[in-house]
Each structure stands twice: as C-alpha cells, then as structure tokens.
C-alpha cells in the first residue's frame, strides 16, 4: 500500500465514522 493512499483514505473513513456516530446520537436523543 502506498503511503499516499493510506493518508487519503484515513481522513475519509474518520469523517464517515463521525457521521455515523452523529446519526446514532441524534436517533437516541429523539427516542428519549
């Protein structure tokens, strides 16, 4: 794996995971 590919992929994955966590938090708040 070239280092550039890893550096490019990591921020995107972190952003996607943050988005997912945000959606779950909002859902939990709505339920309560």
Walk me through the structure:
There is one protein chain. The model has no long low-confidence stretch (mean pLDDT 73). The termini are far apart. By secondary structure, the protein is mainly α. The protein has one helix at 3-31. The protein contains one helix and no strands.
What features would you highlight for this structure?
32 residues; mainly alpha; 1 helix; 91% helix; rod-shaped; IS30 family transposase
Please give the count of helices: 1
Largest sheet: none
Helix content: over 70%
Counting copies of identical and different chains, the oligomeric state is: single chain
> End-to-end distance, in Å?
44 Å
What is the CA-atom radius of gyration, in angstroms?
14 Å
Q: Tell me the series of helices and strands, N- to C-terminal.
A: H
Protein name: IS30 family transposase
Organism: Streptococcus pneumoniae
Give the helix/strand layout:
Blueprint: H1 3-31
Could you provide a short overview of the structure?
It comes from Streptococcus pneumoniae. The chain has 32 residues and is mostly helical.
């Amino acid at each position: 794996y070239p280092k550039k590919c890893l550096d490019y992929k990591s921020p995107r994955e972190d952003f996607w995971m943050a988005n997912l966590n945000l959606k779950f938090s909002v859902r939990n708040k709505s339920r309560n």
